Amino acid sequence: MIIKKIQIDNFRSYYKQNVFELSDRLNLIIGSNGDGKTTLFDALEWLFNTKSASVSSVMCSKKRIEELFDDESDFTRVAITYVHDNDTKILEKSFRFTKSFDGQVTTSEYEFNLIYQNGVERDVRKGIDFDYDLPVELRKYSMFKGETDLDIFQSTNALQLLIDTFSDVKDFDAYFSFMEFAKVKSDQALNNALKSDNKNKELIRRNQEIINLKNRKLGQVESDIAKYQKQVTDFSKFLKDIEKNKEASDLLVTVNKRIENLEAEKAKAQKFIDEDYTIKLLDDMWVLMGFESIANEYSSIVGEIDLKKRQIENEYYAKAGEERMLKRIQTDFTPLPVHIPGREIMQEMLDEEVCKICGRPAKMHSDSWNFMRQRLEEFEKSIHKNEEDPIPSLYKHDYIGELQKRNTTVNDNLDRIVGLQREIKEQIKFNNARHESIKSINGRISRELEQKKRILAQTDGATEEQLLSAYTEISNWVDGQSTANENIKRLEKERESLLSEINKAKDSLKDISKESTASIFSSTHTALSMISKAFYAAKEKNKTELISTIEESANEYLAKLNVNDFKGTIQIVQKSDGTAEAILVDSDFNRIHNPNTALKTTMCVSILFSIAKLSSEKREKEYPLIFDAPTSSFTNKKESEFFNVISGINKQVIIVTKSFLKDNGDGDVELDRTVVNKIKGRIFRIKKKKPFDDKKLGTIQTVITQIR
Amino acid sequence: MTINNNNNGHKRDDLLFDIWGGRNPLFEERYEYSVIRVLSDYGVGASENTEAKGKILGAGYEVLILAFFIGLYSNLRLPLTEGEPTKRLGQPIDKWGNLDSKKFRKAYSRLRDYIFVSLVAKTKNIDWIALDKGEIEVNEVVGKLMKTMEEYTNYGLMVMADKLSEDSGYFFSNRSMLDLFLQLVGPKNAERLVDKSDVEPL
């Protein structure tokens, strides 16, 4: 069966007419959450439901309803046009919805038809006839709405269903039941015949008693064995989970420790950073960084002023002293010329042993020298003589002295000022180095967090707490498992002995019966037993072959889909409780626990392809695969490869997906054309028409665009 | 003013530094809102909790100090504009930098000494000798020092106001103030020799 066209009219977000013209191979329908992907599935599910006729105004497009006037109506319709066995048919389901004056919507004229289109001939049949083209049990393997539905073995009776659907010997079931029935009946007949044997009555009775007793016991033993077997299976599962979890939790503990250490390193580095530069200008007096030249200017100015002050002072004293001397000399004995040298000059003359007036040398202690000295002494005496007439100080204040003292202080601290710029630059460099170091630590922390995420992801949803606490339960489970195994061994021994006792008793009865009319019932019983065993074996063998066929072809698909990656195989494992599980094993036949989502998806899709192939071979029924692809966990490259491989398989596949949408920076998503263009197949984009308000259903409308 | 004879050991003069410390510089009122209140907690409250208020400086005078140094290192004075209203902040100079060394700040009262030193170095029209002789009043000299201070500060405030008007967030990066000074003081300026005959461009 190949679907050529899907038409959805006025069904929920599909306002008025909406059509998907499909290709015979890969069809990709791309939309974000809420764009109408699930609604598409719901529409098809509703259409394919051949059993019940459910209709409700909730299914109708709200937008269309709001447009209707009073008493106006329209139709909700979902239809597919498909080709099957060279016939073109249309399966459609529809109803009329009418809006009344008070806004209520009523439904009517429900129709569900299968229409044969043979040229101009139109043959309308009941919709339920669709079951011939796609039986209910096969529909189960055709459409998968949610991402999790792909793993068909999750449901407990999946294996049984597969067998029921595809097994070659399923037709034997009727015979098998009959065999069981016949065995019981022959047993009864045999017992009845034995009852009427009076001669061996006691022996017979005893043997029958033994048989009954032991059978009862056997029943109990079987059920106990089953109980312990379940325990062993459960513990195994827990332990297998925990084993990999333990590994994960060991890793987790290591990663957490590393993260802790890195955070501590980071905190330490951060503590050292001191970047309050503006405040440091004042508090650490960094603002003095350019002060050196000013300090030098100050020193120079103040030095000059100070010198000048002293010079003036000296001159003043000298002058005053001179004037006094003059006065004295003038009032004294010997008038001297006006240009008498001042005190300093006189001292110099004495020191240099020369008269600076006439130029003649005056050697120490010579007459001229002594004369000069005497003059000088008198001069000095005359100065000191008048106590009541001191020379008034020239300066009333010593602000200049204050300035000079300050100069000393400034000079003492000049070293630091000169070094300030360098000190500042060092501090900046130091802070920057801390920042660099923190950046690199952050990089390492992010890598560790990535590692942590990977560990947690591989444990399929176990939280960190679960991982860390789980591993303490291991010893309990290990003990539980070994106890159960011991019990099973013991019970199996018991079963063996019970069975042999029962068989011994039965053989005795047979021997007894040989001599009586019961013998014929006995041989019949034996023959029936053997036939029944043969059927049972055939059924088992067929089941095994079926599974093996599915495995083999699933692995062929797996190899195609996983071209460069996985090198293991799919195995379908039967469990003792009658359920089955699809697992992946590596090349050494070790089970891969918790494969990543991408691998799991590929595995499930391979199995689905394999079952579809089985269906077309054994039942000659082709049907398309319609599913929601969980390819969000694939890399972009892997996604494109995946779809391209599928487009190469000769099978119609309709995949609904969120892939290939990228953020366009405006808070919206758009199709990544460059990637989409590389995919061979028909591409559709569905999205809600703008503007819309999620709270007002009446504004929602899905728009279909065929991209290719 | 006391006219006392130092040599006679009578009551000592107040230090010039202390007299100057009692003053409080004028600034053009228009910079109060455009610069001082933007950068500091002036008008808000406790000045040592700068971080809590998001301002980069605490007391208003801290803005004046930095503005002063901008002018000083640029070697450019800007006399107060005639006719422009002026005002003073609340704290005289001798209180500047007297922070309690708690929380995030440290006291920096010694910075005042350096400011004083630079005023003396840069105020060229003071006859110090006449001062010491008692021929001129000390207040007159302090007044000239203050004028120098106000003029350098005024230039610095203008620079800050210009930066803020171009980019109101300019000073909020922790590097901008520092970089401003590093640029002013860069290798060229550090090597500049002090020359007595330098005339300050007005």
Structural account:
The complex is a heterodimer of chains A (708) and B (202). Helices cover 56% and strands 15% of the residues of chain A. Chain A has helices at residues 37-48, 62-67, 130-133, 136-139, 158-166, 173-195, 201-272, 277-283, 291-331, 343-352, 367-385, 399-412, 414-458, 464-470, 474-514, 518-561, 597-618, 636-648, 673-676; strands at 2-11, 14-21, 26-30, 73-84, 87-99, 105-118, 121-126, 143-144, 569-574, 580-585, 625-628, 653-657, 661-663, 669-671, 682-688, 702-706. A six-stranded antiparallel beta sheet of chain A has the order 2-1-4-5-6-7. Chain A has a six-stranded mixed beta sheet with strand order 8-11-12-3-15-16, with helices on both faces. A two-stranded antiparallel ribbon of chain A has the order 9-10. Chain A starts with a strand and ends with a strand. Chain B is built from nine helices and two strands. Chain B has a two-stranded antiparallel sheet. In chain B, helix 4 (60-74) crosses helix 7 and helix 5 packs across helix 7. Chains A and B meet through helix 8, helix 9 and helix 12 of A and helix 4, helix 5, helix 6 and helix 8 of B.
Mean pLDDT of chain B: 83
Strand order of the largest sheet of chain A: 2-1-4-5-6-7
For the largest beta sheet of chain B, what order do the strands appear in spatially?
A: 1-2
Mean pLDDT of chain A, nearest integer?
82
What can be said about the biggest beta sheet of chain B? 2 strands, antiparallel
Please state roughly what percent of the residues of chain B sit in beta strands, choosing from under 5%, 5-15%, 15-25%, 25-35%, 35-45% or over 45%. Answer: under 5%
Largest sheet of chain A: 6 strands, antiparallel
Which runs of chain A of at least 5 residues are low in confidence (pLDDT < 50)? none
Number of strands of chain B: 2
Shape of chain B: globular
* Global Rg of chain B: 18 Å
Beta-strand percent range of chain A:
15-25%
